[in-house]
């Protein structure tokens, strides 16, 4: 069973390695794992779709070998299709693409799923959730970006909690939130229906185990208060 299929109603934390020290990637992931992280969020950027450039399949493969956590690839790239086979080969468990630049989204999602991986779509802050209406049966998760893609450490966009709520009305798929997630903003997103909390700068600004735990626990408290 895939990671997202198993999440159910649990709140889980995923460190975004964009904010980690890339020279010590495996160790940085272990530090967040000690704070309860269950998934690694791996941001891939191409200097075309976003003005930043990060890491690709070779680094993903090395990290997969060095960590016991599943690795989720967030492709912030133009033409993601040509990169899918290399990320599958690298051993990631899921791949998420940006529908804004994925010309044949249905085909891309099915290409990901055909390899046995879970498929996701990430929505930019200005992209309406309705863009995914006809893709929902082909998705395993949705990422609601709460900053504009490209960089870590940006300010959380609060209206994105309403987008999570709207998506929740459309689907039962697990909702991942990505950008500006901290112990202060995680509860807003969990109350709205998010369950997978991606956090980069909030985790790596201090001791990653302590900071990861704070984000996860803030999210779990919000879920408990909601359901009693
Ligand atoms: C932004 C990336 C995010 C980023 C989040 O394009 O998709 O995953 O690393 O970083 P923080 O948590 O610092 O906003
Ligand atoms: Zn991301």
Could you please describe the fold and organization of this structure?
There is one protein chain. The protein is of the alpha/beta class and 228 residues long. The chain has a single domain (3-227), classed as TIM Barrel. The chain is built from nine helices and eight strands. It has helices at 3-7, 25-33, 57-66, 84-90, 105-114, 160-170, 186-192, 201-204, 208-227; strands at residues 12-15, 40-45, 71-76, 94-97, 118-123, 141-145, 175-178, 196-199. The protein has an eight-stranded parallel beta sheet. Strand 2 (40-45), helix 3 and strand 3 (71-76) form a beta-alpha-beta unit. Helix 2 (25-33) packs parallel to helix 9 (208-227), helix 6 (160-170) runs parallel beside helix 7 and helix 7 packs parallel to helix 9. The chain binds D-xylitol-5-phosphate and zinc ion. Residues 16, 18-19, 41, 43, 74, 76, 147, 149-150, 152-154, 178-181, 198-202 line the site of D-xylitol-5-phosphate.
Q: What keywords describe this structure?
A:
228 residues; alpha/beta; TIM Barrel; eight-stranded parallel sheet; binds D-xylitol-5-phosphate
Structure described in brief:
The chain has 228 residues and is an alpha/beta fold.
Task: Provide a count of the helices.
Answer: 9
Shape: globular
Number of β-strand runs: 8
Top CATH class: Alpha Beta
The fourth-level CATH homologous superfamily is Aldolase class I
Mean pLDDT: 98
Distance between the termini: 29 Å
The unique ligands bound to this protein are: D-xylitol-5-phosphate, zinc ion
Query: What summary fits the major beta sheet?
Result: 8 strands, parallel
